[in-house]
Amino acid sequence: MTFSAKTHRGKLIFLLFINVLSMVLYFPSGILAYLQLSLVFLTLLLVFIHFTLRIDEGLITYQVLFLSLVIWKKELNPQQMKQLTFKRVGWSTQCAVIQTKHILNLQIIHFTPEDVFQELALFNQRNGIPINKSKDYSLLEKVEKGSG
Q: 20 to 30 Å CA-CA from 31: which of 9, 23, 40, 57?
């Protein structure tokens, strides 16, 4: 199954608006102009970044894309994974961290559809990978079951 997430575009567009407005009103010069122009360019690029997570039978594929161009791709098989940790982020947001035996851990947050966490847990159970749930995450699960 494939899941997707986008950057916080509303916040980035607001930041872009503030930077452009600042440049127009105050006409920065010298190094400040280059810094502000770089920030505008970087913010504009970040608006078009999105993420995909694909969970197959024995493989998890995580991609970072700019428009439809793959910037970074990581494929994990069960042998590369140490454990899956479920956490609470913020007030009521769920997060999963796939801890790997090598370089980078993957943080799964704000992916749609919402059943990404159930699919990850099922993948780990099928492949014998340990699952760790924080107390806060368990509390979120109870609240969701009670309201759902």
A: 9
The 10 Å Cβ neighbour count of residue 64 is 14
Per residue in 55-64, pLDDT (tens digit) is: 998 899 999 9
Cβ-based neighbours of 98, under 8 Å, separated by 6 or more: 60, 76, 81, 84, 105, 106, 108, 120
Q: What is the CA radius of gyration of the chain?
A: 19
Sheet holding 49-55, edge to edge: 2-6, 49-55, 60-66, 69-76
Beta bridge partners, 93, equal 89
Taking the complete model, does pTM exceed 0.90, yes or no?
no
Number of neighbouring beta carbons within 10 Å of residue 1: 11
Among 15, 92, 103, 8, smallest CA distance to 51 is for 8
